Amino acid sequence: MQLLDKLHFNEKGLIPSVIVDYQDGQVLTLCYMNRDAVEKTIEAGKIHVFRRSQNRLMIKGETSGHIQLVKRVFFDCEGNSLVFAVEQKVAACHAGYKTCFYREYIPKTDSIQISGDKVFDPDKVYK
Amino acid sequence: MQLLDKLHFNEKGLIPSVIVDYQDGQVLTLCYMNRDAVEKTIEAGKIHVFRRSQNRLMIKGETSGHIQLVKRVFFDCEGNSLVFAVEQKVAACHAGYKTCFYREYIPKTDSIQISGDKVFDPDKVYK
Predict the structure, then answer these.
(1) Which pTM does this prediction carry?
(2) Nearest neighbour of B25 by CB, restricted to A24, A76, A112
(3) Which of the residues A3, A14, B28, B53 has the least number of beta carbons within 10 Å of its own beta carbon?
(4) How much is the ipTM here?
């Protein structure tokens, strides 16, 4: 796989990957992939991540069914990070929002506001 | 600064930040910030990064003048990463492209193609 030759994994064997919506470009989440996760993601056409807290490879949306279908793949000038444009099923965030970046910081007032709509109820999805 | 209380810096004191164009949402680059860099970025309204290779804080575009003016600030559900929507002066990538993610991997043909236009000539900017 030509892509793998271009990438540099960090000292833990991971590379950060930005996941964006392929239609509106919105950043959905930032995840970490090891070499296996990049390979599996490309081969299956579905985002796979290396879940650091569990130390294992998993498909994004394993529990919720909210998978991410890969549409386009980009990598940066130094091969230190990836961008995947995906079709997001339901929503990316476990808190029920489309994007994990649903909180906005407002410097002027030093305040935080919710800037996204809730798409699902986490209590009903993660039982 | 309320934002800082919500963020988790990694064991090196860094947090990954995704920089996107505030108009079209395109991902421009992924950089790392320490606590100082986040503060300076918010206070000055210009992206500051912790340059790992040089082990120092710097304003993005220090050499080229291609600075990034902060328009909006988002942080993820776990406080592990940031998204800054910015007005990019000239271009984000030192290679002369608007985005650092100017190379696209095409899984079907296992090939790589340039998917962005060159905005400036690096040899003329970095002398």
Answers:
(1) 0.95
(2) A24
(3) B53
(4) 0.94
